[in-house]
Amino acid sequence: MLEDIAFITKIAVKSSAAVFFAALGEIFTQRSGVLNLGVEGMMLVGALAGVAVGSATQNPVLATLGGMAVGGTLALLHAFFAITLRVNQTLSGLALTILGGGLASFLGRAYIGKPALRMTVWNVPYLSDIPVVGDVFFRQTPLVYAAYLLVPAAAWVLFRSRLGLRIRAVGEDAASADAAGVPVAAIRYGCTVFGGCMAGLGGAYLSLAYTPGWKENMTMGQGWIAIAMVIFATWHPVRAYAGALLFGGLAALQFFFQATGVEVVPIHILRMFPYLATILVLIAVMRLDRTRGSGAGPAALGIPFSREG
């Protein structure tokens, strides 16, 4: 029984990283007042870039940075339209998803079925030797450890640093923040590009560590789950990681049942369960927040800012 729980938990931790990276980036983006619905597209191009750079260099660091760079570049395009041109952010984000998905599908044909760089597992000295806990949490790839570190770091930046105060001020009332001398456009550009880099990192994690290699639509909607996770987490990094672990745990159940040969429900229903459960939990959280009058998100979210009014 304990071995089964450890197996499921280890897969849950492994499965949670991509969604968490993307959700964390979107938290910063939305905290600054910009809505980016292009997470799915940025994850896809990040995954493809990770495979392409990894195949060319055989260097996991460069492959990871390549995924982040491509995701950040697409986010920069969204930032230009949303912040500089002040177009509808919902439409711009959806266009970004279509663009990213189309580019990944077209350019990725050359990498389908080809061997890809695989990120190796790092065993943390001493900690990996702890019974059960060590195997679950400290025998993972480096990007999983990066997720561990990003949780407290992101929370500190958002809620304890001067930069975080500026980000939240811009997201709540851009005009007042501008009057106080905060560079609204620069903050929003920086957060949007950071969000794109994190989405690209999530995609690169999928193609380098989770299921190495490239295949069509390999994110399988995790970009949309990440956006839902932001609302589920009420724009807080710690709760976002908890939500990502929940998603990862539900995804891990299908691997457990496949490994043990137990078929509680048909496999195609089981594969739907993590996404369905995420939607149900999201609805419950939104209803609870509505009754409490909280959780509405940054007040200026999706609202373009201009000094001319």
What can you see in these coordinates?
The chain has helices at residues 2-31, 39-57, 60-84, 89-107, 133-137, 142-160, 162-172, 174-179, 184-210, 222-232, 237-260, 267-292; strands spanning 122-123, 139-140. The protein has 309 residues and is mainly α. A two-stranded antiparallel ribbon has the order 1-2.
- Provide the CATH topology: ABC transporter involved in vitamin B12 uptake, BtuC
Taken from the alpha-carbon principal axes, the silhouette is globular
Which whole number gives the mean pLDDT? 89
Fraction in beta strands: under 5%
CATH class: Mainly Alpha
What CATH architecture would you give?
Answer: Orthogonal Bundle
Radius of gyration: 19 Å
Approximate helicity band: over 70%
Report the sheet with the most strands, covering strand number, pairing sense and barrel closure.
Answer: 2 strands, antiparallel
Overall number of domains = 1
Subcellular location: Cell membrane
GO cellular component, one term: plasma membrane
Organism: Desulfovibrio psychrotolerans
Main location: membrane
Describe the structure using short key phrases.
mainly alpha, 2 strands, 309 residues, ABC transporter involved in vitamin B12 uptake, BtuC, globular, 12 helices
